[in-house]
Amino acid sequence: MTTELIAALPGIVFITDAALVRQRSRDFFWYSPVLKRQLNGVKADAVALPKDEGEVIRILAECHARRIPVTPRGAGTGNYGQAMPLKGGIVLDLSAMDRVIWAKPGVLRAQAGAKLIAIDEQTRREVGGELRFHPSTKRTATIGGFIAGGSAGAGSCMWGSLREPGNILGLRVVTMEATPRVLELRGADIDKANHAYGTNGVITEVEVPLAPAQDWVDLMFGFPTLMDAARFADALTRADGIVKKLACVIAAPVPQQYFKHFEGVVPAGTHVVLAMVAAPFLEALPPYIERTNGRELYRCPTDQAAVPLYEHSWNHTTLQALKVDRSITYLQTLFPPPGHLALVEKMAAMFGDEVPMHLEFVRFGGEVTCFGLQLVRYTTEERLAEIIRLHEESGCPIFNPHAFTLEEGGMKRVDARQLAFKREADPLGLLNPGKMLAWDNPAWTPDAPRSHYMFGDADAPEVEDALGE
Q1: Which positions ≥6 away from 162 have C-beta within 8 Å?
Q2: Superfamily of structural domain 216-393
Q3: Which of 354, 374, 399, 443 is the most buried (most CB within 10 A)?
Q4: Where do the structural domains in the chain lie, given as residue ranges?
Q5: Rounded to whole angstroms, how far apart are CA atoms 25 and 44?
Q6: Tell me, which fold does domain 2-93 have in CATH?
Q7: Is pTM, for the whole model, over 0.85?
């Protein structure tokens, strides 16, 4: 079937070498020992590398005609199998579609395969702007992959996450039908394809706002207690007049054990805050540092750092630990406001060094709070499940990084709008099959109801309302 498909698509580049196909069928799923067990053998039959939207349309039409599954992919920097082809078929690698289409003051339009670091370089040069926020994988990730599979990152302490209206302005999406359509999603329609893992359309272009470009400075502060560090990061995030891009708390002994680029910088027993602050605002920091018993340990302009601090934050904190200890894994936790600091203190006391605390302070639904990307000193799947249960029973929702479906991870509910759009845009269910539980079971519900969702809201429409059933 793959040979017939390639023959039907002259001029389009395909990869069929088994080792390369396996390589581009994988992401960072191995962060999770559970996903490593479940997904390690997943592999496509071939990889297609379209150079423009016309080739995407041709590929989708021919695969639809042959009932061949298609899994869209950016740089493959996701952590839970978002871009892994569970049912084989074709991986649609969009990395060759990498142009910035246009940039204006305050706004950008780019092809899905454009790398985030290249976008920032071009927009800084041309219009004095930069992306509002980016994942810790900025140097390799693509803009389409970030929107399809990511949620937040460096800059979310100022701008929130991809769930917040206004952080995505437009998506151009190709459907998978007998005759694929090209749709422009704007306004509320963006939610149909935002963080959908490419299950209901292939994103080919993205339009996003830009923030004014800044001269960023990397800063590391040390604190005698975890809660001193957390209070400083919380206060920095609330300081609306200070332009910042990172407020990351990492408990001892994680920096001392795993931050090889900073050996000797962090004293034993010291908890740290990693911060990125725009240069003009550095003089505003001392009162916050003094009130929380902190002291500066490190300072360097971000663009001069051998390894920027954002590559020790967000999902890179776990990666730095995994470079030293492959038994480490992690969680993704919301500490709901306004009691987030009390919950952090409670969970740190409950688990101690079994679950070292790592917090990213953000704006979430208009409020300041923190996400936990705590490390876990992994022993068994049963103990991991118990740790997750104890967090949720304490009022700390877990967005499970040890599951590969939309609903079990960031959604924690059936997103009726995305399901309805999939029925319209991918009627045969060929796009990234196996990642949307609702496709096979629209009535799926989590074990317990939620008050907070990474994407979608508690009062979102029910499936019957959205589908007209």
Answers
A1: 146, 147, 150, 151, 152, 168, 194, 195
A2: FAD-linked oxidase, cap domain/gating helix (3.40.462.40)
A3: 374
A4: 2-93, 216-393
A5: 6
A6: 3.30.43
A7: yes
